[in-house]
Structures are given as C-alpha cells and as structure tokens.
Amino acid sequence: MPIIVFGSINMDLVANTPRLPRPGETLTGHRFTTIPGGKGANQAVAVARLGIPTEMVGRVGGDRFGEELLTSLRASGVGCDRVLQDNTTHSGVAMIAVDDSAENQIIVIPGANGQVDPTDLQRFTDVLSTASALLLQLEIPLPAVVAAAQAAKAAGVPVILDPAPAPTHLPDELYPLIEILTPNQIEAGQLVGFEVNTLDLAADAATVLHQRGVSTVIVKLGKQGALCSPANGEPFQVPAFVVKAIDTVAAGDAFNGGLAAALAEGLSLRQATRWAAATAALSVTKVGAQSSMPSREELEAFLATPGV
Questions:
Q1: What is the pLDDT of residues 124-171, one digit of tens each?
Q2: Which superfamily, per CATH, for 3-10+38-59+77-83+113-303?
Q3: Domains of the chain, residue spans
Q4: pLDDT band at 71 (very low <50, low <70, confident <90, very high)
Q5: Which of 16, 232, 260, 278 could be a cystine partner for 31, CB 3.0 to 4.6 Å?
Q6: How confident is the model at residue 307 (pLDDT cuts 50, 70, 90)?
Q7: Enzyme catalytic residues
Q8: According to DSSP H, which parts of the chain are helical?
C-alpha cells in the first residue's frame, strides 16, 4: 500500500554563513548550493528512502528547476506521474541561510506550489483508497489541503498533517479530518494560543487539539524529544536522540516521513514515534533537505547501536 504525499516541491537555494544576518546587515558566506526541497517533496523522499512505495502529488514550474526537481525525486524512488509541470509559472523556491551552529532562516517563494488547488486531487483519487496514509503540510493553499483531507477521510485513509509553516489558525472543519497532527513547539503554540515549551504544556496543547477533533497529537520539542498524545490512552514521551547537528533543515519532514513509514510497516504508535525521532536525528547530521534523508539501512543500523 503506497503512501501519498500531497504538497510542495521546491528548489532550496542554500547559503552557508558563520552566523545569521541581522536586519539590514550584509554578510559574506562561505558556500552556496542548490538542493531539492519543499516540505511535501522532502517527506516523500524520507518515506521512499525507508523502503515504502511513495506517490508525490503537486506542481513544479515549466523551468529548469522543475526538471531537476522531478529527476531528483525519481532518483530517490518517488513516483512522480501525478506531479503537474505548470508552464504558466516558475517552480517554488526556498532561500535558506544556515549558520555554523546549524540554525537557519528560510524565505519561501511558492511559485507553482501556490497554484495548487482542489482540482489537483483528480490526479490521485484513483489510488487514494489503496493508500496507507496521506501526508499533508501547509506550503500549498489551504483549500487544497482541506479538500485532500476530506477526500482521504471519505476513503478511510488516515491523514497525517504537519502544520508547517506555522499557521495562525486552521479551519475548524479540518481538525476532525486529521488522524495525526505533528506540530513542533512553535506551531503548537500558534494553534492553541499559548507558549508550548515543556512536556506539561505540550500535553495541555494536545488536550486542546483533541477537543477540536484531532485523533492523535505528537508535539515535537527539540532536545526534549516528542510528546505523543494518542486518541485513546495516556500521553507518553519519546526522548530525543543525541547527535552532532550540522544542518537542521527538513528535520521535521524527516520526522513525519519516518512516522508514516513505520506505521505503514505495522509498528505501534510508540515504536513509530521512535522511528520518527531517529529519522529526524539522522537527517540533522547531513547537509540539505532531501539529501539528508537516511536510508532504511542507515536507520536500522542507528537504532541497533548500543546505547541508542
């Protein structure tokens, strides 16, 4: 059963610099790279590299970046027959600054991603009923996200939503359509209206989100690990893995890819959250977005390491 990812496909333009610039400041960086990214595409690559059949649905522009993005996705094993090459616009671009401590600043220019609408669902409704999950994010217009979640709910397919970039709110009708919501602490705070920076506050946030209709909430808390609040049962913590971070770009996408892959394999929610945390940890030890996603062999070796 494939995992379907409906979302953004970007080319990341990455500048490495000793520190992040202050407003109005010009800095000299020490490296520039173009790396395929976009939250949707990143998650698709994360799933595919873990050995799960994956179908990407979205749009790229009718430009050189569009061709490169599709070539890169296919090289990672992602099915791209349902990606539209939109010749009326350019491909989505993310301009990313990464400093020597692995912190980053990102500006996203949607391009073709901003043209995605509910009509794009027509390209995957034929396989939706056979999918093990539908992965969604918020780098495409919200009406398309809601329509996709509604279609998945009607087909009995679980929706895993990464509410990023951080929203100020989500439509009330979207919450009951979500099987698993995976905000980080900033996104959780945006959704519930209070700061979420401890396990107790994450549990409080999860309670609010359950009341809005979400089945399972997983709040990603960085070095504090993740707080998982299942639909039925007590919340539990999955500790973070200690690694040397080089680049934190796409760690959240790696988390969701690992989570979806593990659930597709039939693992329990606790086991799947551990897979997710490990996938994210491995991703920050490499440079880039899609290029940082670990293989199944790397993940299994990491989880088998004594003391991990």
A1: 999 999 999 999 999 999 999 999 999 999 999 999 999 998 888 899
A2: Ribokinase (3.40.1190.20)
A3: 3-10+38-59+77-83+113-303
A4: very high
A5: 16
A6: low
A7: 253
A8: 39-49, 64-75, 125-128, 142-155, 185-192, 199-211, 251-264, 269-283, 296-303
Mean pLDDT of 174-187: 97
* Residue-level pLDDT at 210: 97
Cα(142)–Cα(46) distance, rounded to whole angstroms? Answer: 23
Average pLDDT over the chain, rounded to whole? 94
153: left (phi over 0), alpha (psi -120 to 50) or beta: alpha
Q: How far is CA 160 from the centre of its chain?
A: 10
Cβ-contact 215, 179 below 8 angstroms: yes
With a cut of 90, say whether residue 289 has pLDDT above it: no
The strands making up 133-136's β-sheet, listed across from edge to edge, are: 78-86, 54-61, 3-6, 133-136, 159-161, 180-181, 216-220, 226-229, 236-238
Unique residue bearing structure tokens 């107790």:
200
Do 72 and 49 form a contact (C-beta atoms < 8 A)? Answer: no
Q: Which tokens belong to 277? A: 């945390």
